[in-house]
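Subject: mismatched residue count in predicted assembly?

I count 390 residues in my input, but I want to confirm that the predicted structure covers every chain. Input:
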Amino acid sequence: MKGILFVISGPSGAGKGTILERVLKDRQNTEFSVSATTRAPRPGEVEGVHYFFITREEFQNRIESSSFLEWAHVHDEYYGTLRDWVRSRLDEGHDVVLDIDVQGALQIMEKAVDEVFIFIAAPSIDELHRRLTKRGTESGEKIMRRLEVARHELEHVSKYEYLIINDDLSLACEQLSAIMASEKCRTKRLEYNLI
Amino acid sequence: MKGILFVISGPSGAGKGTILERVLKDRQNTEFSVSATTRAPRPGEVEGVHYFFITREEFQNRIESSSFLEWAHVHDEYYGTLRDWVRSRLDEGHDVVLDIDVQGALQIMEKAVDEVFIFIAAPSIDELHRRLTKRGTESGEKIMRRLEVARHELEHVSKYEYLIINDDLSLACEQLSAIMASEKCRTKRLEYNLI
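Triage response: the counts match. Full output below for your records.
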């Protein structure tokens, strides 16, 4: 059976990272997508594991040849998801999780075939504010900017097929596991010959 | 949150009854649909629990007023699912499971809004044959007729959103639970105000 591409978005502070880490640990044959980037490797980063490190010229060529499922230009560096790489992982039967912001997900939705779009949210912007403040790793100004981005991203929630509201972490993990398991039972994905 | 109507079909011998019993036992707020019928109550059967027992005249009136989600005429008796009864259970927040044959499910699909259609199948007709024979409760002729019905019903599998192939009972139960849980996270069903 071909793998499934799960495209997962959610604001910083919604708990997406923790949920993904827990769920993927218990799940066979599921891996994170590896992005291509023009930025230099940091100490310890491994080609093909953390990123595919490519030159600006190569990135531009790949944009022109529509090789990216989605791409973005951030802080003067380029980041993108290589369509062929994802496709080959799926063809080999692996499920792939792409943790990406709403702008990236919207690019994929434009040409979506059978990807599964999941949004992970905090119960409210106020709760998101509390969590980011409690974390204590960012300035008030930076937190305000994150909340602004979150507010903007939430306007697109209805474009996602599934919404997990992370009020209780273990329930949210169960919900993500259930979504991933149920998608495996979609008739349209199954090749069956029961007769 | 409004409840969900799960419409579940599958041939005799696929294990549908066992799976439903196990999954519903562990699931809060989920109940079997209660059918209306013209046949007489059997000893121990309770009105409103096992069936709604109604007269032929009332059944006919309800057919004419489109009160049934689906209905059938079997062995000279009528059986049907009352739309208003289901709707009121859903409105009160209960999930309802309707265990029904393909003909009944097809009637509901015609006017489907947001019901969830699930088919539970044995891995093959040969395996179904083995299971029905092993059960030992029916004549060879009756088993042959059941296999014929199953073959015919399987032609409609692709109209169901989900397919559970019951090869391993506990996996099949997990899959049904996952489908029921994941449907609760469908954005279209959720009323959310996260901003």
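The longest strand of chain B covers residues 68-74. Marking this ticket as 'not a bug'.
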